[in-house]
Amino acid sequence: MPRIMGVDLPTNKKIKISLTYLYGIGAATALEILNTAKINPDKRASELSDSDISSITKLLDSTYEVEGDLRRQLALSVRRLQAVNCYRGIRHKRCLPCRGQRTKTNARTRKGKKKTIGAVRDKSARNQMK
């Protein structure tokens, strides 16, 4: 099982698909990397030699921001927005969508599970209120 940048790539998939398991690499970037490294994109990940893996790793280290570095960079960007108190930073702090989507309905992915306010569900609690 090839390991690149601390991520185990699936062995039974083609290398052009396996590279997309790295954070920050999509399909187009994977093909670009393989063309630069002169590796056949239709080759399976299990068929890669050690030299192929090392050439991909060197290429990723030198030219692309992936995995931990990219995650750290994005986290710092969000923290900067929050420190400046700009609109997007405030939306990030409140866990609300920051790109103009509506929040009266929808936005459940960002806001989380619905929190019911004012409704008493437990019968014993309802009896105590009387």
From TrEMBL:
It holds the Pfam family Ribosomal_S13. Residues 120-130 have a biased composition (Basic and acidic residues). Residues 101-116 have a biased composition (Basic residues). One of its GO terms (cellular component) is ribosome. GO terms for molecular function: transferase activity. Keywords: Ribonucleoprotein, Ribosomal protein, RNA-binding, rRNA-binding, Transferase, tRNA-binding. The keyword Signal does not apply. Residues 101-130 are annotated as: Disordered. NCBIfam families: uS13_bact (TIGR03631). Belongs to the universal ribosomal protein uS13 family. Located at the top of the head of the 30S subunit, it contacts several helices of the 16S rRNA. In the 70S ribosome it contacts the 23S rRNA (bridge B1a) and protein L5 of the 50S subunit (bridge B1b), connecting the 2 subunits; these bridges are implicated in subunit movement. Contacts the tRNAs in the A and P-sites. Part of the 30S ribosomal subunit. Forms a loose heterodimer with protein S19. Forms two bridges to the 50S subunit in the 70S ribosome. This is Small ribosomal subunit protein uS13. It comes from Lentisphaera profundi.
